[in-house]
């Protein structure tokens, strides 16, 4: 058999944990090979071993049948192995070109030949249809574009084997489509790919084979056409997983959140929300669907008091909360699961307990006359941990040491525990495995059933369709339409998100 | 020391004797440690809340002047006068911290530069005040009234005339206060949170700008109190200073050596006091030049700071043993 | 209370006379009054066959203002019979300790402590020496613009300034003295900038009393000389003979920009007082003032740059001052 | 004093006092751009000043007018080596970089003073005879007006400092080395995945900070104080640190900030010659440079953004 990569019986330990335990993975030339497993199963670790960032304790690696020692990323590069990391390895302040050529700069008389470099980047970008602007600064481009830069980095170094570590977690559906197209082009050009993803649909769609790992151990390697999502989920979690959250008919009551004619500017001063109106009632989940950058973030920030509303009114339970400070908004009864959990959701150097009282630390019973009651704090943390199944050594553990999924569960636990009337959930399941997604979805529906209003923002159409009682489609800062999930299709949503109104949809279908 | 041809054993004995050998020296060590405790707390407090306060020196100077000013200007019962003078020092230091805090919170100006500049402003302005306001063109101010003094006949007696004064109680109290604020209060929680992650703190409803200002104000107040120790305790007056006292700068090392914790600062400050006082004794007792003391201090700091080095050496030794 | 409760303190328990000095933050190598005091003490030791150490004579250096009391006490505890505090900054510390340690004699240099039987004070009439160099400056200037650069705006420094100004006026009423302070004694860069501004604005003689900041003044003067040896630029040194700071070689020819220096003979005062104390004549409670008459201040021996007229004028004014015909102001206005 | 003279004084004084700060701040830029905070600049300057003076006094007879230049080389070498202590402690042994920097300051002063005592038997050295003199830059000094203002009575190190600032800017922004240096300071793990040896880059950067700090100290000692004592370097390292931050970690910015400090100070010196200002208490002139700096900072709204990984030790395999 022609394997380009063989990782045989790999074992990798971290202090106190075996991340990879006798895992074998073989990659055929020209295939897309999926690597599947729960959060923390050891996928990234295995790939970091292949890329030379970690040294395995046991096992061997063969490239094109020859045994190799990949002692550092340089060796991996020389062997034609490239990796698109789960957390992008990009330098915000650098340009696209600078990020790509770093470490392998074309020079002229000892100086970087930036013209030539840009030329090369443009060429590769064109060849694979990546459409990247070589001069743009990383901090100015979208996440999807950043990912293409990561891909370009591997291609620039002439990689034949490309590892994608959860590339789709941070992408919008459109970007995912494009990425899949890119991967297919790469295969056509003779490259081989290892793809890590939690989205079983994607595996079914693009992959040839799949290797499933669980708790650091290899479970199975299957041909994708011989399997199905249910089986894969079972293999990876060890039990059956329900993909569509069961929920009964909703019974919406009075309006909890009312927004009238809201205008908000983005950080550059350009109007991002333009005259938006919205109502979220008690006992319903309103999903906001839309392509990234259509004003979703600004809308949420305006509600939560993080950004100033230029005009318009935001009411909570009939009370005007427009432009109140975040604390007042929180106190009025708004809970918020932010999109970027590391940046906005958690203080990574605080313990779980401390993070659980990030908004309530100044109130009884957590603090009394300004003095903290740590007993209460950790009591609360303990109850959230057990109720929300946060996997952690203890409530005194620093949040930094938790996996992403468990960090997310902790945030959700904290927000629900505060018992807000309105819960805003932005991309609540990004990067999580199917088991964790199932859990979180259940909790959101539970909130609805307890008579809370839930505002869900997500790029996952599945998630939106699954959970929402109503779907508001946002386009260029306003709602283009509000639809009933039972009476719509992904195609229709897609068109709306692209700005085609219902009537136009009709027109289009006439054409 | 060995390398340079001095007897290290004698040197260290002299150092030890000069710091702890007699009650007098114990008193002196603690007296010197007193302002170090405050400066260390000031810097540690700022560090814990994500700020680098190089301005403890200036805050200490203005605190000193303010305390002496109150000590001279009023004639009040001790129960009022002393607390008033101490509060004045805290307020002056707080003001000196407020300015960089405000500039950082509102205009995002880096606190390191502003505090460095504020040090010079403090030095020159206080010299001006001493000559033109607190005295009639003299180099020192008059002595503070007895009612504002921290001097302690009791300590002088038991330590054989050392200059140890009642400020040490305040310093110990300050250690407890810092520990309490940082570890036990909602305020400390908020300040630490902002220091670690301002974005998340803002999302959680905290007022980031206010926290930054408050941190600098509290930090400055600690340093200002350090000035009161000198003005009301050690000297009892203020004098023209042609250059910085260095306490504020040494405070950086004290804070960091103490791991930026209250108790750590206390220990590091006493260590510093002991090294500095003890070193004065090295030339006369052992013929070792006290230039060596800075080297000794540096090596101690490096050694303590490189905790990882010790771990590294230990694992190396273990490996070799295998 | 007296110091009898400390085991090894007090004097008189040894038959040999011992003496120590505690420096201010300048230390014994400051090339200024601390060093001068120490040199005096060493000379005294030599003259009396004493050895350096606890049984003879020794010094204690203060590294910061906070060290004075510690050092003074250490000196007492080591049984020295006489302890000098060098510099006005030690005054409060000596004042306090003298009350506590009545068996030890103290001497304060550059400041006055009254009413204590175990303390003698030594001061200098810096204004008199400064007056003499002022006379020289007034005669040496061609632009009638003269500068004075002080370390800080303080009593002591202003004594220099006041005497200097009076000397200039006495010799050359048309000349004008600009006074500027560096703000510190260790900022040579600023000292140089101030000197540069003064020289560029036409000043041709600068008298500095600025310690380390004064180094910049010499550097600037040398630079100007270097550029144009015919230029009339001078620096007047302070505390000791600073001729060595002014040497400059231009195209193989040696020049010296140090016009002369005002010297303060702390060494002499130390020897005098130590001798008295050794002989049991310690002038407790008294203030000894060293002026021109006592040879405690004066003009430096290096006078190569002085014209005969200047030397004559110096001689004339010296006589007048010694005779008490003139009194020199010690305060600016 | 006429306006032109005032201008002349301001420019020459700014250039003179800025030179050591520029060199040292450039050293800080190297170090911090690589992610290593360097509060030890003061100590590095002390080392440079110390070595240059010792070298100068020892070899002046042998090398004549070349002595200060050769002393500069010695200061570069020793400064660089000395900085390696900071590198070892903070990069390899993961000591807190600020602590290690503070230790460097203590160590430098202690070592220099101790050695001075040992070598010369006294606490400060003699005055050097061969130093960086003020010169007229040949050719340029004859340009009308400009020549008089900028190219007469200046020291070579001032102009070299400015040229070097441009060179460092070029190195940091235009060469592969610079790109790698910055990448290591922004995102060491990303740099690592690109095959860049983070530790090596940081060592090199800290070494360079020692080299430049050494030059800074040597220039100061050999063009201003002309000898070495415990107070030769007293706070200039912190001012250089401030210049680096003021200049937003950019070589040209740091240079501008250093020149600004010099400018503000000479302005205050000139101030006492201006009749109107003569009347105000001298304290206002003393504090003016520092107040001006704060005002300037407050005016340049927009924050100084430190390199992202500044102060963060890089531990391979840790997230
Ligand atoms: N740097 C590290 N230090 C210590 N332990 C680690 C480290 N990286 C990973 N681990 C451990 O290895 C295990 C596997 O982690 P890994 O990141 O490979 O999971 P993963 O399968 O990629 O998860 P996810 O799907 O969330 O990305 C984790 O459970 C963790 O305990
Ligand atoms: N610095 C660290 N020290 C110890 N363990 C760590 C550290 N960083 C990560 N881990 C461990 O690695 C595991 C996986 O971490 P990782 O961040 O890959 O989680 P994740 O589920 O992939 O999250 P994300 O959604 O952010 O990708 C966690 O279980 C955590 O315990
Ligand atoms: Mg992973
Ligand atoms: Mg993950």
TrEMBL record, chain A:
Its membrane topology: Peripheral membrane protein
Any GO molecular function: ATP binding
Keyword RNA-binding appears in the UniProt entry: no
UniProt entry keywords in alphabetical sequence: ATP-binding, Cell membrane, Membrane, Nucleotide-binding, Repeat, Translocase, Transport
InterPro entries listed in its UniProt record: AAA+_ATPase (IPR003593), ABC_carbohydrate_import_ATPase (IPR050107), ABC_transporter-like_ATP-bd (IPR003439), ABC_transporter-like_CS (IPR017871), P-loop_NTPase (IPR027417)
Gene Ontology CC terms: plasma membrane
Taxonomic superkingdom: Bacteria
Subcellular location(s) per record: Cell membrane
Major localisation: membrane
The ABC transporter domain, residue ranges: 5-240, 257-501
A Pfam entry, by short name: ABC_tran
Stated family: Belongs to the ABC transporter superfamily.
Protein name: ABC transporter ATP-binding protein YufO
UniProt source species: Weizmannia acidilactici
Species lineage: Bacteria, Bacillati, Bacillota, Bacilli, Bacillales
TrEMBL record, chain B:
GO molecular function: transmembrane transporter activity
Protein keywords: Cell membrane, Membrane, Transmembrane, Transmembrane helix
Main localization of the protein described in the UniProt heading: membrane
Membrane topology: Multi-pass membrane protein
Subcellular locations according to the entry: Cell membrane
Transmembrane segments: 30-47, 54-74, 80-99, 164-182, 212-240, 252-275, 295-314
GO cellular component, one term: plasma membrane
Presence of keyword Hydrolase: no
CDD domains: TM_PBP1_transp_TpRbsC_like
Name the record gives this protein: ABC transporter permease protein YufP
Gene source species: Weizmannia acidilactici
Gene: yufP
From TrEMBL, chain D:
Molecular-function GO terms, alphabetical: transmembrane transporter activity
Domain of life: Bacteria
Membrane topology of the entry: Multi-pass membrane protein
Keywords noted in UniProt: Cell membrane, Membrane, Transmembrane, Transmembrane helix
Protein's UniProt keywords contain Transmembrane: yes
Bilayer-crossing regions: 6-29, 36-57, 69-91, 98-116, 154-173, 203-222, 283-301
Cell location: Cell membrane
Primary residence: membrane
GO cellular component annotations of the record: plasma membrane
Name under which the protein is recorded: ABC transporter permease protein YufQ
Lineage, top ranks: Bacteria, Bacillati, Bacillota, Bacilli, Bacillales
Gene: yufQ
